Amino acid sequence: xxxxxxxxxxxxxxxxxxxxxxxxxxxxxxxxxxxxxxxxxxxxxxxxxxxxxxxxxxxxxxxxxxxxxxxxxxxxxxxxxxxxxxxxxxxxxxxxxxxxxxxxxxxxxxxxxxxxxxxxxxxxxxxxxxxxxxxxxxxxxxxxxxxxxxxxxxxxxxxxxxxxxxxxxxxxxxxxxxxxxxxxxxxxxxxxxxxxxxxxxxxxxxxxxxxxxxxxxxxxxxxxxxxxxxxxxxxxxxxxxxxxxxxxxxxxxxxxxxxx
Length: 260
Description:
Blueprint: E1 6-7, H1 11-29, E2 48-49, E3 72-80, E4 87-94, E5 109-116, E6 122-123, E7 140-142, E8 152-158, E9 169-179, E10 182-192, E11 199-200, E12 206-207, E13 223-226, E14 240-243
Antiparallel strand pairs: 1-2, 3-4, 4-5, 5-6, 5-7, 8-9, 9-10, 10-11, 10-12, 13-14
C-alpha cells in the first residue's frame, strides 16, 4: 500500500492533478483499484512526490513445511479471484531425492496448492490427485517428468480472455523432456480450468542450457574447457566450462507467445 501523493506547491496543482486523474482514469477506478505505483493512470503530477509506506514483515510464514513432501518450499504464485475474493497459491515443495523404498523421482519436486480468504491464512486442501508414499490425500497438483534433473518453478497467470475454458489458467515451469530423440531441459507449460486440475503441454517450449549435459550458455567466443584434478574423489567427474570472454555480461531473454 502507499500514501496519497504529497503536494508541496501551490494548491492549484492539486486541482490540476485531481482533474487529470478524474478525466482519464475515473471510469477505470470503478472497475479496479488505482495504486498509483507508477504514472500509468496519472496524466499530470508536476510538483508532487510519490511516497511509499514502509513494508512490514510478518514473523509468521503464510505457508510452512508441514507435509512429508515439504522438506523445503520455494517458488510460488498467487492469484485473487475478483468474483469470489478467494486467493489461490501455487508453490514448489521439495521432498528430497527419492528411492525405490520412498518415492519416484517424479515426486522429488512438485507443485502444491493452497487457498485463503484473506491472503494471510492459507489452508492446504486434500485434493487426492497424487499419492505421496502411502498418503492419498495430498495437495499436490503437478509432478515432474522424472528426467535427468528436477522440475522447478510454478509461474501461474490467469487469462480471462482465453476462449478455451480448459486453458484459462496457465503455468510455466522448468523440467526435462524428450525433443528430437534427446532429453533437454527447458521451459514447459501446463493448462487448467480451475488452477487445480492441470494438463501438461506435451512438447518442450524453450530449451535452456545445462552444463552437466554439455549444453552451455550461448555466449560469443571460442569455448575452452578447464579441467582440474581435485583431491576429492567425488569431484573427479566435474569440470569447469568457460568462454574466453568471461567478462562479457550475461543476457536475459524475454520469451513471448501469441497463443498461450
